[in-house]
Amino acid sequence: FFITSWIVSLLREPSSFLGSIFQMLDDSGVAKIVVCWSRFSDIDRHFSIYSVNKGIMSEVISGEYSVLTTYDFDSDGIMEIAAVHLDRELKTATASLLALSESGFKVTGSCELDGTVTGYYEPKISKLPDGRQAIFIDAQKSTGVITEVVYLKDKKLVNAFASKNGKVTENLKTLRASTVLCGDYDNDGCIDIPLASKLPLTLGMTESDAVYLTIWNRFDGKELIPFAQSLINYTDGYYFNVPNAWVGKFTVLRRLDLKQRIIYRWDEETAEIGEEIMRIQLISKNEWNDNFANYEQYYEIARNTEYVYAVRFGNSALNPGNQFVTENFGLTE
Fold first, then answer.
1. If residue 287 lies in a helix (H) or strand (E), which one and from where to where?
2. What span, in angstroms and rounded, lies between the C-alpha atoms of 207 and 321?
3. Whole-model pTM?
4. Which of 24, 46, 44 is nearest to 35 (CA)?
5. pLDDT tens readout for residues 62-85
6. d(CA 103, CA 308)
């Protein structure tokens, strides 16, 4: 508490304290304090590094950034700072590995990122299948999200998905029209990247009614490899891992007023909707308890403090069964 209060007292007005990190950034044997703060707006971010000598704190060096993290990327026992700087006017973005030395920062590696993004989420550090550490950075781009993957290759910092579009560097390989962020979807210790596929529009649906299938991918150091697909409903707070047999053969109708999603069979050849496969509905716990007879065809698959999450199956060959749904359904919070 004392350290945090002291740090905040150093900041000039108008400033906002974003956080502090204690890390071993050089070979002095003494941890440094990395202080992150913003001035005027959250976009205008800065960091300062402080050292402690005989009870006296002093600033060692400072810099600007859009998002940063620390990690020992070269496994020498000393942390590097991985900082991303975005210039919205020039449409450039650069990731840099910074090592602290007696004369200041030494840039040990840098690479270009997508310069057309508008902001970043917090970076995640994860290993690739070959054991190398990588930084996964989700960023806001146009109406969706991308994931940048930055790692060391032959002692050089590289961006896995960067490509040139004229003079501008872009990442189109991981662009998806959704807000789903990267994460360890299958709990194997490695970060996975979600892509999005729009399901067919039907029954008078417009673009604003579109539902997206999230396709989860592993990055093996060369390419994205899909391994699972899910329907994620952040509004109602759940996800459902759809069966492989469904891919290309279903669509979803949202009924927001009823907190309901109806899943129909879809015929790709005729572009026509078929029978109902199943529906997922949220029912208040009081309604479920007081009027259970109205829901005799529903099966409870989860519940929280307010709602029962229930499923009803249609007469379809694609019916996955209650056990599959229960095992592949979960709450997002």
1. helix 285-290
2. 30
3. 0.85
4. 46
5. 778 888 888 888 777 888 888 899
6. 61
